[in-house]
Design brief:
The structure holds two protein chains of two kinds.
Chain A: H1 2-17, H2 26-37, H3 42-52, H4 56-65, E1 77-82, H5 85-89, H6 92-103, E2 116-121, E3 133-135, E4 139-141, H7 146-154, H8 159-167
Parallel strand pairs in A: 1-2
Antiparallel strand pairs in A: 1-3, 3-4
Helix pairs in contact in A: 1-2, 2-3, 3-4, 6-7
Chain B: E1 3-8, E2 11-16, H1 21-27, E3 51-54, E4 57-60, E5 70-73, H2 77-92, H3 108-116, H4 120-126, E6 134-135, E7 141-144, H5 153-162, E8 167-170, E9 177-180, H6 196-200, E10 206-208, E11 216-221, E12 230-236, E13 239-245, H7 258-262, E14 277-280, E15 283-286, H8 289-300, E16 308-311, H9 318-331, E17 337-338, H10 346-356, E18 373-377, H11 381-384, H12 386-397, E19 401-405, E20 418-420, H13 427-440, H14 446-452, E21 453-454, H15 456-464, H16 468-475, H17 479-491, E22 495-499, H18 501-504, H19 509-522, E23 532-535, H20 542-547, E24 554-555, E25 559-560, H21 577-584, H22 596-600, E26 605-606, E27 621-625, H23 629-632, H24 637-645, E28 648-653, E29 665-668, E30 677-680, E31 685-689, H25 702-712, H26 723-733, H27 742-747, E32 750-751, E33 776-777, E34 796-801, H28 816-821, E35 827-830, H29 831-836, E36 844-849, E37 853-861, E38 868-872, E39 888-889, E40 901-907
Helix pairs in contact in B: 2-3, 8-25, 9-25, 9-26, 10-19, 13-16, 13-17, 13-19
Classes of the chains: A alpha+beta, B alpha/beta.
């Protein structure tokens, strides 16, 4: 436990060491921190505040302004529900409702067993497959219905949806 | 400043250049609705209510500067339309249950909506059904989001006034809210509980918990630290109900810290002593004043000279301390008169007398913001002297440089700074290292050294024997950091050095003080506004306690007692015994007396120096005023034993402290709110405190009690009708206070020296020549290690200190809210040391020193040096001074070595 904390501190130190601590670096630092830890741990934000000599409330204020930053650890399966226009029109709201019910968490939360977390995101660039979700940034499941969504999240992964991702040009996961 | 002419609503007005349109209008009694504007804060332009029409353009008047010939219209249809929309959007989010709100009739939103006009139907239509949770986590502040108008005044107050920045705007759009870091409850945030935001909140979103409107307010001075903030104390009937900062006071300018604003309720405590108590067969029995005074005077008559000891309280007034000093010398014929300064700044006072002639803070507190560089050594102003902390933060935010020398990461370190994390007790080495850099790199003020000082060659010689390598090895601070700090200090003029207990509570504390003073002398930082030294005094009147001669070495006004001409250059001031014998009409003792540690600890000896401090301790009877010595003195077991073994002890206090429990007679005293008098603040300002209430029960002011005892013992010179008369006697005998009278204090801001009734007082010390010594004197210096060092059995160094919500052991512990903010003792320990001991935050631990062991809780942090632990001083359940040592005291200042105490820590 202590070892983990220490390891994380060292990782953070490494991240911070590539910055000078000027004001305009706050968002890039937070992005790197989230890349490393999957979210913004309070301890990392405090350390960032210390490093930049800015108030910790400022770090939180800035981070909370942007929807890209998360303050809770994500689950092993992090599900991003696309709420972009195309998905919205094709029933993304229902997809999200169903997943919230199924997992027993609200958007932005993580299940108690840390298996799943749910996040609503803007367009992930797969409008042709709307409505769609992305799991762990990498796997896109498209043309969902609420029932299908439950299956792809809980059950065995079906080939056709995996193929959907391969057919799609570019790496949409990066746009999360 | 140029004047600017403009027209607002057909009214021609003239204002100063740089004024905003809103200010111009308000100054000329033209109301423009506004919410986010506050005169103490920079304009923000957030609420958009103050919108006006300037030549057809819509402008936000709080952020628009006046321009010559400007034509402003405040009420065009377009302006009114925009304004109404803005107000309605705010009201839609505002819980308008005005009659139940603490800000009713004092609310800016009411003012705006009255001006704009909102009808009932529209209000009902607008009101949100959803209620947001109220943050009731804080003992003094309620945060109700249902009333927040997001004006950001609290955010800006926290940043601009307090400098804590505990809150900010979080989230965005409709979800925007004022939030702490991580949206945690206020009590668990970086909030310093000063209440400045509550004072300025325009609506009822921030309210003091349990606020009662006072029926009367009295102008007085805060009773906690030595900053000396002006206080408006509010009362209803026979109890205190409120306190607010005096806006006209030059030090605090209306601001207060958590103790000043919320800590007054100890005065109302049911635990206050209300009647004299006499111990009969081990039990206290209530007694009449007549009975108690009779017993005390009969008993004290049996002990004189070396058998009697007096302890004066730094919490009481100058007048009362003066009387205690006079009482000891006249009535008991002894120089055994001590006060709490011997545990804190005696090293500063006795240390600086031969160097710069005075230990007073060189500049007034309001000049702190004029300094270009702060060297904060062994001192944590934002917790122990919070209003001075605010001033430092303000100056640093505006560009002043900050150097922090402390083994602990103090909250000032959140600002840009250079931190010198030195090992406790190695201050001299650090400062000599800096001095060496200044010398080597020619950063000296040679003109100042030549014209205003003597003996630089001797100091220089001692410096040349000291290298930066040695500084690095001894202090553990990298030499580059020391070099950088020295350069920044030497370049940043005027520079101000702050210190307190981290410098003085060492058995070589006076060397630390000398070193700091030398740093200021070699860079010419004396005698100028914003420059010099600021030894921050802990108690509200510990400066006065030293001024009034509650110390064996001098009579009131630093006029030396016989046997204390210890400094060669003081010979010409020699003893003032004859002067005081003549004035007081009695023969005065000609033998030196014992200061605090020595009064209670016969074994204490000077560290590296001997002589007069090794006098035998023969005290059999004590008269102790307002001090809980059983907890206050290092190695407190000796105090307990001395008092238990004493033949007679009388304690005068406002509570039955652990010290009072050991007394034979306890006399109930009046608190600061129940008497008149003066306190002298850390910046030498003599200020009136005023009576707000009658003391509880039959409690009496300390000056009255001391006079009664003296009179009953048959002594004259104690016939005072009021404290003003005592001040007149002080003025007649103490040149520094020569021009001070109650009449003048009503009108003027006076800092000593104030020699006569026409003297304007002295804001800046040492302007043309140094006080008393004329030229400052350098002394050769060398680093002396602390007497007690860590070893295998006691590997960690314990250092001690105050926390923000508490003062000492009694008064703040009686305030429920302050105890809520800091409910129990803790020991801050570095995460590496904690990991080695398998200790986590919150674990119960045992702290063991060579003297004793106590139980506390761990607080794991990376803000303290490895090998060092920090323990608070406030909790008598975990008495820190059971652990500390008083074996070696400073040979000059007699202060014990509280700040370097080797300990071992175990899981309990």
């Amino acid at each position: 436990m202590l070892d983990d904390a220490l390891k994380n501190r060292l990782k953070l130190k490494e991240i911070l060491s590539s910055f000078r601590g000027t004001e305009n670096e706050l968002i890039p630092i937070l992005q790197r921190v989230q890349e490393q830890f999957g979210y913004l741990p309070e301890s990392a934000m405090l350390e960032t505040a210390r490093f930049m000599a800015v108030p910790e409330s400022k770090v939180y204020a800035t981070a909370s302004f942007y929807s890209q930053f998360r303050f809770k650890a994500t689950g092993k399966k992090h599900i991003a529900v696309c709420r972009g226009t195309a998905c919205h029109v094709r029933g993304a709201g229902k997809i999200q409702d169903t997943l919230e019910r199924q997992l027993g968490i609200k958007e932005g939360e993580t299940t108690a067993d840390r298996e799943y977390s749910l996040e609503a995101v803007a367009c992930i660039g797969c409008c042709a497959l709307a409505p769609c979700i992305a799991v762990n940034k990498e796997t896109i499941y498209g043309r969902l219905t609420p029932q299908k969504a439950v299956i792809v999240v809980n059950g065995p992964v079906r080939e056709e949806t995996e193929n959907a991702q391969k057919n799609h040009a570019g790496k949409p996961g990066n746009m999360l | 400043m140029h004047k600017v002419n403009l027209v607002i609503d057909n009214v021609a007005i003239t204002v100063q250049e740089g004024t905003t349109v809103l200010q111009a209008a308000l100054q000329n009694n033209i109301y423009i609705p506004h919410l986010c504007h506050h005169p103490d804060l920079k304009p923000a332009g957030i609420c958009r209510l103050c919108i006006v029409d300037v030549g057809g353009q819509m402008l936000v008047s709080c952020s628009t500067a006046v321009v010559e010939g400007m034509m402003v219209k405040t009420g065009t249809p377009a302006v009114e339309k925009v304004r109404r929309l803005a107000v309605e959007l705010l009201i839609a989010e505002h819980d308008a249950a005005c009659l139940t709100c603490g800000k009713n009739f004092n609310c800016k939103l009411q003012e705006v909506s009255r001006f704009v006009g909102i009808d009932r139907e529209r209000l009902m239509e607008l009101q949100a059904a959803e209620r947001k949770p109220v943050d009731n986590s804080h003992p003094f502040i309620t945060r109700d989001y249902n009333k927040c108008v997001l004006c950001g005044i609290c955010v800006r107050t926290c940043a601009e006034i307090q400098g804590a920045s505990a809150i900010d705007f979080a989230l965005r759009g409709y979800a925007t809210k004022i939030s702490t870091f991580g949206d945690n409850p206020l009590r668990e945030s970086a909030c310093e509980s000063c209440g400045e935001c509550v004072e300025r909140c325009p609506v009822g979103a921030l309210l003091p918990v349990g606020f009662e409107q006072p029926a009367r307010e009295v102008e007085t001075v805060c009773p906690f630290c030595g900053t000396g903030c002006g206080l408006l104390l509010g009362a209803r009937g026979d109890k205190l109900v409120s306190a607010r900062g005096n806006p006209g006071h030059t030090t605090n300018k209306g601001r207060l810290c958590v103790k000043g604003r919320f800590g007054w309720s100890f005065v109302n405590s049911p635990e206050r002593l209300k009647t004299p108590l006499i111990k009969k067969e081990g039990v206290f029995v209530e007694a009449s004043w007549d009975e108690a005074i009779e017993l005390v005077s009969a008993k004290l008559s049996q002990y004189r000279e070396e058998e009697a000891g007096v302890f004066a309280s730094a919490k009481t007034t100058n007048e009362e301390i003066y009387l205690a000093s006079k009482f000891a010398r006249v009535v008991l014929g002894t120089n055994n008169i001590a006060n709490v300064a011997h545990l804190c700044h005696a090293n500063t006072v006795r240390g600086l007398l031969p160097v710069t002639g005075s230990a007073g803070m060189t500049v007034p507190a309001w000049q702190i913001r004029e300094a270009a560089c702060f060297f904060v050594a062994g001192c944590n102003p934002t917790e122990a002297h919070p209003v001075i902390g605010m001033e430092i933060r303000k100056a640093v935010r505006e560009g002043a440089k900050l150097i922090v020398a402390n083994p602990k990461e103090i909250s000032l370190c959140r600002l840009p700074h250079i931190r010198l994390p030195l090992r406790p007790g190695t201050d001299v080495a650090l400062i000599l290292g800096m001095a060496r850099v200044i010398l080597d790199e020619g950063l000296l003020d040679e003109k100042f050294i030549a014209e205003r000082t003597v003996n630089f060659a001797a100091f220089k010689e001692s410096l040349e024997m000291f290298s930066l390598d040695e500084a690095e090895a001894v202090t553990g601070v990298a030499r580059d950091l020391i070099r950088e700090a020295a350069r920044v200090y030497a370049a940043g003029k005027p520079a101000l050095i702050f210190w307190s207990m981290g410098i003085t509570q060492h058995s070589h504390g006076h060397n630390n003080v000398w070193a700091l003073a030398h740093l200021a002398m070699m860079t010419g930082n004396y005698g100028k506004p914003g420059a010099g030294v600021a030894p921050l005094r802990g108690h509200n009147n510990v400066q006065g306690a030293t001024d009034m001669g509650a110390t064996p070495a001098w009579y009131p006004g630093y006029q030396l007692c016989p046997g204390y001409e210890l400094y060669p250059r003081f010979n010409k001031f020699s003893s003032s015994r004859e002067k005081f014998e003549k004035a007081w009409g009695y023969k005065l003792p000609d033998t030196p007396g014992l200061s605090t540690v020595k009064q209670f600890n016969a074994k204490a000896k000077g560290w590296g120096g001997t002589g007069m401090w090794d006098l035998p301790q023969k005290i059999k009877a004590w008269y102790i005023i307002g001090a809980d010595l059983v907890h206050g003195v290092a190695e407190s077991e000796h105090v307990r034993r001395s008092l238990e073994q004493a033949e007679f002890v009388v304690v005068q206090d406002i509570f039955l402290t652990d010290t009072a429990r050991l007394a034979d007679v306890v006399l109930p005293a009046a608190s600061f709110a129940e008497k008149d008098g003066t306190f002298t603040s850390t910046d030498r300002r003599v200020q009136r405190i005023r009576k707000v209430l009658e003391p509880p029960g039959s409690a009496k002011a300390d000056w009255w009690i001391t006079c009664e005892i003296a009179r009953r013992m048959g002594y004259s010179g104690f016939d005072f009708q009021n404290p003003g008369q005592i001040m007149d006697e002080i003025a007649s005998l103490v040149p520094l206070y020569g021009g001070i009278s109650y009449a003048r204090l009503e009108e003027e801001e006076l800092r000593w020296p104030c020699y006569d009734e026409n003297h304007p007082g002295t804001p800046v010390l040492h302007v043309d020549k140094f006080l008393r010594v004329e030229k400052a004197e350098f002394w050769p210096l060398a680093y002396i290690p602390s007497p007690e060092l860590p070893d295998e059995d006691f590997p960690l160094i314990m250092t001690t200190g105050r926390t923000l919500p508490h003062f000492h052991y009694n008064i703040t512990r009686k305030v429920e809210g302050l105890s809520n903010l800091c409910p129990e003792d803790f020991v801050e320990i570095n995460e590496r040391d904690a990991a080695a001991l398998d200790i986590r935050s919150g674990d119960k631990i045992r702290v063991i020193s060579r003297r004793s062991s106590v139980v506390s809780k761990a607080k794991v942090s990376n803000g303290i040096l490895p090998g060092v632990v920090f323990k608070t001083i406030h909790f008598t359940e975990s008495p820190t001074n059971m652990l500390t040592s008083a074996e070696y005291i400073d040979p000059v200042g007699t202060t014990p070595n509280t700040k370097v105490c080797p300990v071992r820590i175990e899981k309990a």
